[in-house]
Design goal:
The protein is α/β, with parallel strands linked by helices. It folds into 2 domains: 4-169, Rossmann fold, CATH 3.40.50; 172-198 and 256-440, no CATH class. Helix content is 58%, strand content 9%. The protein contains 23 helices and 8 strands. It has helices at 4-12, 29-37, 48-64, 85-95, 106-118, 163-167, 171-182, 184-196, 204-211, 214-218, 221-225, 232-249, 258-268, 281-300, 309-314, 319-329, 332-345, 349-361, 363-373, 377-386, 400-413, 419-426, 429-440, and strands at residues 18-22, 42-47, 73-75, 99-104, 124-127, 139-144, 147-152, 158-162. The strands form 2 sheets. The chain has a 6-stranded parallel beta sheet with strand order 1-8-5-4-2-3, sandwiched between helices. The chain has a two-stranded antiparallel sheet with strand order 6-7. Helix 3 (48-64) links the parallel strand 2 and strand 3. Helix 4 packs across helix 5, helix 13 packs across helix 21 (400-413) and helix 14 crosses helix 23 (429-440). The radius of gyration is 22 Å and the shape is elongated. Bound molecules: zinc ion. Residues 132-133, 180, 183, 256, 260, 281, 285 line the site of zinc ion.
Length: 442
């Protein structure tokens, strides 16, 4: 069972050629795998939880389709498997000549993705939770010698997502996927601003691939929290499409904006790693998404067309001052990283004037595009709450002041151009952050 939207995305995807999303598709998984990857041998890589959820049925389906398997590699169910390079080595050692199938969610998928890439081997994934959009992506975030790095690998050749399996997954995993998909709302708005300013034009096909399914996918939060399998179709498809769009685009812009930088920074600070289960990617992204939706509300409340752009461009801080500020905001290697990233998008004087002129000149039309893309912060917050996702800073162990302090850090953290940069360049950044915390959100 493959929808038109998925078929269209597969046609543009670089690595992934087969996807099956639907109720009961696990029983057909062997046939899909045989059609795209041959009859094996295969090795299923799981943990005790995901093996219990679908291991035997996957193996039976493979045998039924005439595929051979070698004994599965099953990691312990507790503590939660960690995305460390050691575990990747364990998979590589177990693989032999077999084609690996990741049976699990984010971490297992990332580990198998990296192991297969390093062994120049194709692989497949049978997803067991609607927890993130990385199933169909090429990146594998990994801890290596205590540092977080995203290794660029290849995406799976085949992705199988049985809605009955993912609906039965623990609720915190579904909540994470819901948060990760909600990020496409402010993330898309950031791409609109990068498009208007000529920094990163929108690819219309890729845009439609990601954005067309977001609203329906987020429309039934309570049914998702209740584990209603039919309600998962939109969410799972939306997450798969997001990953495929990143493949087609060759980067993460279609699926992430400044909201993800809040999450990355909290991840670097090891927020919630000691919890059981550890704080999820989507849990952090949900709070970043609310922060950015609120920031957009503050931006849209301003008459940007009335700003004296020449004066704003002339008032731009010189680079030396910005670099000094970055070095007081971050420590050590992260400061060097942020200096490099921010320098790449820094502009002043005539260059800055030219960049922002279309935005200011066409502001009513730009504001309409942004309003069509965004949802009210209160509304998104309520949807996240109904989905069982994090909806307030304290849900992820932060105070509003912690989130507030992350705004400038999120701006400096990556070269990607977002609403944070627009506001900063227009000289209204601090005012908008103030509005977020006094008027709009918390
Ligand atoms: Zn994400």
């Amino acid at each position: 069972m493959t929808s038109q939207a998925l078929l269209g995305a597969l046609a543009r995807a670089v690595d992934t050629s087969g996807a099956a999303v639907g109720r009961g598709v696990l029983a057909e998984s062997g046939r899909h795998l045989a059609a795209h990857l041959g009859t094996g041998p295969y090795i299923v890589v799981a943990d005790q939880n995901t093996w219990a959820a679908a291991g035997e049925r996957l193996t039976f389906s493979l045998e039924d389709a005439g595929c051979t398997t070698i004994p599965p590699l099953i990691f312990p169910g507790r503590p939660t498997l960690y995305a460390s390079y050691d575990n990747c080595e364990v998979i590589k050692a177990a693989m032999g000549a077999a084609t690996p199938i990741a049976l699990g969610a984010g971490t297992l998928n990332d580990l198998v993705k990296l192991a297969a890439f390093e062994m120049t081997r194709d692989y497949a994934v049978v997803g067991t939770a609607a927890s993130m959009d990385g199933y169909t992506g090429a990146g594998a975030p990994m801890s290596e010698k205590g540092v977080k790095v995203t290794r660029n690998c290849k995406a799976p050749v085949v992705v199988i997502m049985d809605l009955d399996v993912v609906a039965a997954a623990p609720g915190f995993l579904t909540a994470s996927g819901y948060g990760d998909l909600a990020a496409k709302i402010p993330g898309g708005a950031d791409w609109i601003l990068a498009d208007v300013t000529g920094i990163e034009p929108i690819d219309e096909d890729v845009w439609a691939m990601v954005q067309s399914g977001v609203a329906p996918a987020l429309s039934r939060p309570a049914a998702l929290a209740a584990g209603d399998a039919d309600a998962f179709e939109g969410l799972v498809e939306g997450l798969c499409l997001s990953g495929l769009a990143m493949q087609a685009y060759g980067g993460t812009r279609p699926a992430s904006g400044a909201e993800h930088y809040f999450s990355h920074l909290w991840e670097l600070a090891h927020l919630g790693v000691d919890l059981d289960p550890p704080l999820s990617h989507g849990g952090k992204v949900a709070i970043g998404s609310l922060a950015m939706c609120a920031f957009y509300e503050a931006l849209l409340a301003r008459d940007i067309a009335a700003i004296d752009l020449r004066a704003a461009a002339d008032a731009r801080q010189p680079w030396d001052e910005i670099e000094a500020d970055i070095r007081t905001t971050f420590d050590g290697a992260l400061a060097d990283h942020a200096v490099r990233e921010t320098k790449a998008k820094y502009a002043s004087g005539n260059e800055l004037y030219a960049r922002l002129k279309p935005l200011v000149d066409q502001w009513p039309a730009v504001a309409d595009r942004l309003r069509a893309q965004l949802v009210a912060t209160d509304e998104l917050s309520e949807q996240l709450r109904l989905a069982g996702a994090s909806a307030r800073p304290e849900d992820i162990g932060l105070t509003p002041d912690d989130v507030r302090a992350t705004f400038p850090r999120a701006m400096y953290y990556r070269s990607r151009y977002t609403a944070l940069d627009v506001a900063w360049e227009l000289g209204i950044f601090d005012d908008l952050v103030e509005d977020v915390f006094t008027r709009i959100w918390i």
